[in-house]
């Protein structure tokens, strides 16, 4: 079995709901759950956003870093930072949310989305205490299964080197 790879750094243009920017390197020692979403994506709004909110409510008090990554690969002109800020307020999203930095080469795919080779939104990322990407899922993950996977990573010691069943 292959060892999980280090999760690529996030490239964030602006953060909401946090007093300071969040980097993956600074989260070393914590389990990190991220949900890449678009506010104009029906599946994100109806399923992923509620799941992101539930994950934050349940796991942030246990020290899990739960974040949203707003990654826009279409309708760029309609989705501004001020529109996203209103969306976060209206939907009661209290976890930190970063706006994925636009592509540098003029293509529509933002930098973090490209770094993770995401297929679209929603995409969930589960990163262990050592900063390794343990799971990446395009689409929805059954809540019970995802909660169990987060708990499994929480139970692993920070120095764990074995690969779990999620991989």
UniProtKB/TrEMBL annotation:
InterPro entries attached to this UniProt entry: Redoxin, Thioredoxin-like_sf, Thioredoxin_domain, Thioredoxin_ResA/DsbE_sf
Pfam families the UniProt entry points to: Redoxin
Domain Thioredoxin: 1-160
MF term (GO), any: oxidoreductase activity
SUPFAM superfamilies named among the record's database cross-references: Thioredoxin-like
Superkingdom assignment: Bacteria
Stored PROSITE patterns: THIOREDOXIN_2
This protein's name: Redoxin family protein
């Amino acid at each position: 079995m292959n060892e999980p790879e280090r999760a690529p750094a996030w490239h964030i243009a602006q953060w909401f709901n946090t007093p300071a920017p969040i980097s993956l390197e600074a989260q070393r020692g914590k389990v990190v759950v991220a949900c890449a979403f678009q506010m104009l994506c029906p599946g994100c709004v109806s399923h992923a956003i509620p799941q992101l909110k539930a994950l934050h409510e349940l796991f942030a008090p246990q020290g899990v870093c739960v974040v949203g990554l707003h990654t826009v690969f279409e309708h760029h002109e309609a989705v501004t930072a001020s529109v996203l800020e209103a969306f976060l307020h209206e939907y009661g999203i209290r976890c930190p949310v970063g706006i994925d930095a636009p592509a540098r080469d003029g293509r529509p795919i933002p930098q973090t989305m490209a770094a993770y080779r995401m297929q679209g939104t929603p995409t969930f990322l589960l990163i262990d205490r050592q900063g390794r990407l343990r799971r990446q899922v395009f689409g929805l993950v059954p809540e019970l299964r995802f909660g169990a996977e987060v708990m499994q990573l929480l139970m692993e010691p920070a120095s764990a080197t074995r690969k779990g069943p999620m991989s």
